[in-house]
């Protein structure tokens, strides 16, 4: 199977997560009105999904190492589809949160399988390039998601958004069984006793270099999730923009992510992924410093939007470089390592997002200051990340 074919199918699969996060963002006001709740409370459905998406990976990753990628991935898609249908039928906030939690379980089994499949097939700089190609394909989903949500709202109501998500998950089941799994290089059958699946996490947790990259992933993702959680508030309430303009600005973030992702691929032939990671984390930090300054000075809307787009766009280079480095040291425990990274990323970021919704979701400055604080931590971790020269020592 060519890298493009593999990236296309895996990119379509991992896109399920951004679709479930972003597609219903324009519908937040409609959901709030339909359920009779405050706009900020709708954010709890997002935080619940994200937190579960992280925690459930701790189960899905080891099971994927033990029983194979296929049953875990297909099972996750089935759970996701069924829960999406039930979310569309929810008539209260508590019901919606419950089914979003179950949907998060299915999404977690999908999310943890994709990087594990990549690590099964390739490693090193080649893995960084493949992650970059997957990311480039995946960017179509979050770019199109708010527009799709806005279209569904124009044609019907917010319930139809989740029915479309369910249909997409069902489509992926058929596509992967026909075009992906029969063509993958077979993995050696796992003989690890089930009781050791949990203890394998200790191997990853004790690896200081890997945990440094996990920390970078958590903090950079938290920066992005803070924006995603409050994007409707920032653009639709704070600045009073329409659904259409919100979708355009959201797509602009993804467009810059795609551009930086494209630039990153040829750069990997000249520079190590760690060096590129340091530069891109620093660029994100600089954009967020500018954003906080603009907000403090009550600058114009277009300048706020430009800083946000610059900061979030940096994820296009950060994600593939960081994931390749985090998984490099565990070729035989790809599912476990990916699960720990995904669980940490989504659970901690989900917690930060939930706290920001409860205590700082009604003003712009606390939101952007929180984004800056997360980015500052990522800069510190990236500065000490080992480069190619240090890798052999780091694995010793």
From TrEMBL:
<protein>
    <recommendedName>
        <fullName>Bcr/CflA family efflux transporter</fullName>
    </recommendedName>
</protein>
<feature type="transmembrane region" description="Helical">
    <location>
        <begin position="96"/>
        <end position="118"/>
    </location>
</feature>
<dbReference type="InterPro" id="IPR020846">
    <property type="entry name" value="MFS_dom"/>
</dbReference>
<feature type="transmembrane region" description="Helical">
    <location>
        <begin position="46"/>
        <end position="64"/>
    </location>
</feature>
<feature type="transmembrane region" description="Helical">
    <location>
        <begin position="71"/>
        <end position="90"/>
    </location>
</feature>
<keyword id="KW-0997">Cell inner membrane</keyword>
<dbReference type="GO" id="GO:0005886">
    <property type="term" value="C:plasma membrane"/>
</dbReference>
<dbReference type="Pfam" id="PF07690">
    <property type="entry name" value="MFS_1"/>
</dbReference>
<dbReference type="GO" id="GO:1990961">
    <property type="term" value="P:xenobiotic detoxification by transmembrane export across the plasma membrane"/>
</dbReference>
<dbReference type="InterPro" id="IPR004812">
    <property type="entry name" value="Efflux_drug-R_Bcr/CmlA"/>
</dbReference>
<feature type="transmembrane region" description="Helical">
    <location>
        <begin position="161"/>
        <end position="181"/>
    </location>
</feature>
<feature type="transmembrane region" description="Helical">
    <location>
        <begin position="301"/>
        <end position="321"/>
    </location>
</feature>
<dbReference type="InterPro" id="IPR005829">
    <property type="entry name" value="Sugar_transporter_CS"/>
</dbReference>
<keyword id="KW-1003">Cell membrane</keyword>
<feature type="transmembrane region" description="Helical">
    <location>
        <begin position="333"/>
        <end position="357"/>
    </location>
</feature>
<keyword id="KW-0472">Membrane</keyword>
<feature type="transmembrane region" description="Helical">
    <location>
        <begin position="130"/>
        <end position="155"/>
    </location>
</feature>
<feature type="transmembrane region" description="Helical">
    <location>
        <begin position="213"/>
        <end position="235"/>
    </location>
</feature>
<dbReference type="InterPro" id="IPR011701">
    <property type="entry name" value="MFS"/>
</dbReference>
<feature type="domain" description="Major facilitator superfamily (MFS) profile">
    <location>
        <begin position="1"/>
        <end position="396"/>
    </location>
</feature>
<feature type="transmembrane region" description="Helical">
    <location>
        <begin position="363"/>
        <end position="383"/>
    </location>
</feature>
<feature type="transmembrane region" description="Helical">
    <location>
        <begin position="275"/>
        <end position="295"/>
    </location>
</feature>
<dbReference type="InterPro" id="IPR036259">
    <property type="entry name" value="MFS_trans_sf"/>
</dbReference>
<keyword id="KW-0813">Transport</keyword>
<keyword id="KW-1133">Transmembrane helix</keyword>
<comment type="similarity">
    <text>Belongs to the major facilitator superfamily. Bcr/CmlA family.</text>
</comment>
<feature type="transmembrane region" description="Helical">
    <location>
        <begin position="241"/>
        <end position="263"/>
    </location>
</feature>
<dbReference type="GO" id="GO:0042910">
    <property type="term" value="F:xenobiotic transmembrane transporter activity"/>
</dbReference>
<keyword id="KW-0812">Transmembrane</keyword>
